[in-house]
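Usage

Read records sequentially. Each one opens with the input sequence:
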Amino acid sequence: MSSTTAGQVIRCKAAVAWEAGKPLVIEEVEVAPPQAMEVRLKILFTSLCHTDVYFWEAKGQTPLFPRIFGHEAGGIVESVGEGVTDLKPGDHVLPVFTGECKECRHCKSEESNMCDLLRINTDRGVMLNDGKSRFSINGQPIYHFVGTSTFSEYTVLHVGSVAKINPAAPLDKVCVLSCGISTGLGATLNVAKPKKGSTVAVFGLGAVGLAAAEGARIAGASRIIGVDLNAKRFDEAKKFGVTEFVNPKDHDKPVHEVLAEMTNGGVDRSIECTGSINAMISAFECVHDGWGVAVLVGVPNKDDAFKTHPMNILNERTIKGTFFGNYKPRSDLPSVVEKYMNKEIELEKFITHEVSFSEINKAFEYMLRGEGLRCIIRMDA
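and closes with the structure output:
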């Protein structure tokens, strides 16, 4: 596969964001060969995540344009740079917005997945190796996004951000595991760890929250209570094991009090997937004293402050945070893919739309309107 293109510049199509909030433009770009410890991938399927939309709208960060967004995807290794030994052309892979160098203290720790070298950096638009972009149009550099830039037929990543997976796994399904679905699933299974028969509350019933609910279902929770301000999400959530619903707008008391009344003092575990600071505080205050654990997944605004009375903690409630569901990308993602292959998790129900690459702006429209969960973008169409 690599014999014809390895070491050469590849010209291909990419969806370029020239400025904030403006529709992406399909352009011919030049993709340079991978340098040391880099891998060039042929992307076959990618999907749109809310993070792409957030940074495309340039909300709350230093805008960096022109840029190629995209970070949930599945593809095949086209060629590898010097020093890459654990990947070869033809391998099926998931690119990941964070990474695992396998050398730093975090990577060597069983407790952390927050690699010093490769953890997410939304401001950096270039490769670590030389501080330059691998994308250009007529000599003009086009910036990378979170080290992945999957809205391109070919892209270059650091080897530590590429997970090799079972070649039999359908890339148009498992591509959604490279970000949001794994984040929610892992928040429940790896961090909250609900016991069989326990009660779990999930705040926010978007794709990440529904993946957290799916994790609670897999763990054998007896009650899974979905909390959301949008009642339209409740029917869909039943497919993911959610058994009861609470809309805070329907009550004249704080939602943590509503949940405490429903559950004889509080839920055993809660997972917060909204990024709303009020939801975070409610998710903590709704867990049962003595053993309750709250896990925060959503990303707050930069000026938010978490406030609760210290007695809530002294009464033996635990609050935890998680990043990418505590999965180490290279070590752990292959086994999550196997869960799908073994029919332990269903991914089809997360995929509600599919468009061709030329229609990529439709995927943005679906998300901006709040329609569906994940939209798969077929790169060959």
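Summary fields computed downstream for this record:
- The radius of gyration is 21 Å.
- The first strand starts at residue 10 and ends at 16.
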